[in-house]
């Protein structure tokens, strides 16, 4: 057990101390350079080399003061985690044998990692293996201090030599441009002349498990795949609901304290922390930030959770479903649109005038989600999430929107009579034809079963998996809403009578897309049936979700807003199929290894011990050995069943491994390999309940989730 150190500090003193943030830049950069950089950031232009040189120099000096020896372009390839290549600041030794520390503008704004081993889905022909990274100056550089020393990290986008996106950040930045442009058009229609930029604000809640590291290391399935492939349920699970929001244990509290300190230094505003539903499960949420910064910060949060856990002799599990039968982990992606002068377009507002703009925004979002539910679903698809969605612990795999009672009532009135004349809370409202009601922010109701819920002044997309990047969900959200705004603006900009045109458009959109709204219990079987009646797609697994990326509808959407080209989409689909097959292949091989080398030998030892004991008892006296004999028979039956199922899994795995990458291979893994794994798990889990615990070769679920 770690010793608990109690050093107290003032958060304000350390917050952002390792970030080359606005305050630091203002302080350290020459005024002209600072202004130039800010201008570039504001206008989304490319930084000129002269300015970059000055910024790089100051950044290096600052980083060296923090102990940095290396710098790295920190980027997010399509593997789901971040990547980096470290270079030290030193230059070739001078004639006196000393070195200088240097960092040029060119090194700051552009890097050329050998990119051939990152997934590219065929975008980068191997003879042109070079990719390049480019500084995203809208996300500040930071110094990370850890066992590797201190490193200056520069958040970058990662592209192929011909400019195709090989990462999450590039399309995210493109989608932010699209939503900015279309949102500005929309607010201008309502007379706003003061806002100059609209940015998606994103707040990501992160769930995770913490277990003891020695238990983790004793479970090869966790080590290789991030989840347990076998394991019987302990006598006690989460049924008592005594963990949710329960008092945080000392050891975990000490861990969280260090996580917060690290994150605060990195300028990540870690805000809330609590226990989650499952034993050993927790959540951390920062305060929301601009989408690209929030996505970077979520990566930092995941990295920090893992690193700090390691230092505490703990292991952080980010997998969506580390333990079967125990609630899995997700990520809530809270999303809204905010202008540079602080207006949230998703804030219902207090005057009918604001309400009209809000209702138009809302109607457009309903349209976007209804038209592109398949893309949203795809954006939350990853291998681990297949074990979680639809399992009464996470949203179902059908996309729908939750609005809450009051908002729903207003929509109902608009749809049925064309006017909304009253509000459910009973206030008097203007009844003029073009007037819409003034309704209150619906803060009371919390429907936790909805995948896409309106929560007062933001939408909360709750389908994302805990291990996945939130890049893609936000790319999709930004782009589909940009399209809906763009079409609405096309129509309204040429309307002669704006008031009646906007009224009619809202009504039309609500009418056409009301099927996507569902306020009831998303876990109920009735909803599955009702959703089917409404024609809403129920995509239950990743392999079935991937094709959404390359439909003609998606290609047209993403190309129109310059977020993805057709080639980029096709390569992404290819990568996803490949990742699916590869991960399942590793899972299958790990399971084969564990069952063959650990489970079967342990069971044989146990049956041998039983048989020996039976013989010895019989030789000694005439005692009843029926219990031992029954046990021996039962265990032996399960052992032979295990062997049969193991052989089937081995065959399936071998066949899958030889197939060519693509949709067919992924389907084969889903339909044959995953099922063979489930079939093998059954007898093994039964054996775990029978074999002497002393002889069982790895920690049980109970050991892992209750002993932290
Ligand atoms: P919950 O009740 O689901 O735990 P919270 O109200 O604690 O939700 O907020 C969750 C996340 O949503 C936090 O990261 C928070 O900063 C973020 N958030 C709050 N308001 C907004 C907003 N307007 N836009 C985007 N994210 C927001
Ligand atoms: Mg939430």
Give your account of this protein's structure.
By secondary structure, this protein is α+β, with helices and mostly antiparallel strands. The chain has three domains: 11-167, Glutamine synthetase, N-terminal domain (Ubiquitin-like (UB roll)); 176-564, Creatine Kinase, Chain A, domain 2; 580-706, Four Helix Bundle (Hemerythrin (Met), subunit A), CATH 1.20.120. It is 47% helix and 12% strand. Strands 7, 8, 9, 10, 11, 12, 13, 14 and 15 form a nine-stranded mixed β-sheet that branches. Strands 1, 2, 3, 4, 5 and 6 form a six-stranded mixed β-sheet that branches. The protein is globular and about 100 Å long. The N and C termini lie close together (10 Å). The chain binds adenosine-5'-diphosphate (ADP) and magnesium ion. Adenosine-5'-diphosphate is lined by residues 201-203, 205, 272, 285-288, 332, 334-336, 344, 457-458.
């Amino acid at each position: 057990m770690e010793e608990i150190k109690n050093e107290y500090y003032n958060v304000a003193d350390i917050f952002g101390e390792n970030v080359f943030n606005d305050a630091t830049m203002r302080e350290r950069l020459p005024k002209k350079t600072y202004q130039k950089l800010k201008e570039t950031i504001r206008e989304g232009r490319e930084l000129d080399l002269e300015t970059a040189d000055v910024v790089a120099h100051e950044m290096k000096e600052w980083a060296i003061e923090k102990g940095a020896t290396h710098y790295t372009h920190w980027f997010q390839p399509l593997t789901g985690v971040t990547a980096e290549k470290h270079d030290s600041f030193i230059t070739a030794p001078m004639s006196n044998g000393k070195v200088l520390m240097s960092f040029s503008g060119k090194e700051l704004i552009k890097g050329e990692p050998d990119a051939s081993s990152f997934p590219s889905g065929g975008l980068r022909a191997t003879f042109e293996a070079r990719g390049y990274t480019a500084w995203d100056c809208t996300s500040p550089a930071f110094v990370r201090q850890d066992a590797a020393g201190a490193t200056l990290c520069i958040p970058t986008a990662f592209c192929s030599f011909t400019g195709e996106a090989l990462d999450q950040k590039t399309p995210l930045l493109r989608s932010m441009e699209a939503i900015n442009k279309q949102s500005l058009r929309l607010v201008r229609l309502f007379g706003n002349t003061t806002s100059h930029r609209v940015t998606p604000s994103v707040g990501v809640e992160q769930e995770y498990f913490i277990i003891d590291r020695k238990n983790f290391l004793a479970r090869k399935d966790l080590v290789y795949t991030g989840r347990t492939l076998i394991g019987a349920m302990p006598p006690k699970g989460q049924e008592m609901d005594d963990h949710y929001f329960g008092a945080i244990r000392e050891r975990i509290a000490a861990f969280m304290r260090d996580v917060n300190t690290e994150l605060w230094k990195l300028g990540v505003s870690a805000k809330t922390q609590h226990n989650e539903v499952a034993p050993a499960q927790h959540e951390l949420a920062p305060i929301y930030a601009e989408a690209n910064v929030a996505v970077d910060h979520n990566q930092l949060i995941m990295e920090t959770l893992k690193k700090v856990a390691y230092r505490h002799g703990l292991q952080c599990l980010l997998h969506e479903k580390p333990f079967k039968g125990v609630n899995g982990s997700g990520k809530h992606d809270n999303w809204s649109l905010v202008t540079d002068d602080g207006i949230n377009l998703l804030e219902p507002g207090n005057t009918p005038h604001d309400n009209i703009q809000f209702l138009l925004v809302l109607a457009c979002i309903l349209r976007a989600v209804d038209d592109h539910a398949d893309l949203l679903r795809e954006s939350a698809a990853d291998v681990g999430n297949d074990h979680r969605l639809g399992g009464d612990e996470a949203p179902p795999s059908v996309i729908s929107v939750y609005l809450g009672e009051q908002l729903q009532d207003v929509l109902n009135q608009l749809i049925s009579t064309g006017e909304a004349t009253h509000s459910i809370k009973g206030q008097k409202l203007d009844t003029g034809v073009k007037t819409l009601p003034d309704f209150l922010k619906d803060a009371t109701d919390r429907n936790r079963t909805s995948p896409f819920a309106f929560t007062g002044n933001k939408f909360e997309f709750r389908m994302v998996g805990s291990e996945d990047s939130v890049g893609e969900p936000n790319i999709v959200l930004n782009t589909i809403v940009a399209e809906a705004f763009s079409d609405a603006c096309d129509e309204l900009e040429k309307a002669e009578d704006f008031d009646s045109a906007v009224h009619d458009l809202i009504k039309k959109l609500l009418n056409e897309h009301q099927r996507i709204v569902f306020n009831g219990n998303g876990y109920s079987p009735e909803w599955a049936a009702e959703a089917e009646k409404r024609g809403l797609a129920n995509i239950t697994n990743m392999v079935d979700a991937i094709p959404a990326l390359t439909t003609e509808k998606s290609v047209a959407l993403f190309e129109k807003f310059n977020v993805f080209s057709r080639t980029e989409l096709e390569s992404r689909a290819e990568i996803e199929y490949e990742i699916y097959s590869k991960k399942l292949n590793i899972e299958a091989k790990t399971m084969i290894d564990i069952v063959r080398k650990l489970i079967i030998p342990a069971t044989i030892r146990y049956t041998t011990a039983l048989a020996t004991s039976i013989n010895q008892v019989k030789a000694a006296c005439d005692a009843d050995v029926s219990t031992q004999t029954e046990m021996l028979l039962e265990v032996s039956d399960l052992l032979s069943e295990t062997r049969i199922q193991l052989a089937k899994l081995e065959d399936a795995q071998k066949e899958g491994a030889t197939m060519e990458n693509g949709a067919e291979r992924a389907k084969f893994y889903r339909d044959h390999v995953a099922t063979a794994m489930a079939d093998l798990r059954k007898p093994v889990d039964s054996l775990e309940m029978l074999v002497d615990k002393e002889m069982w070769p790895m920690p049980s679920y109970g050991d892992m989730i209750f002993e932290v």
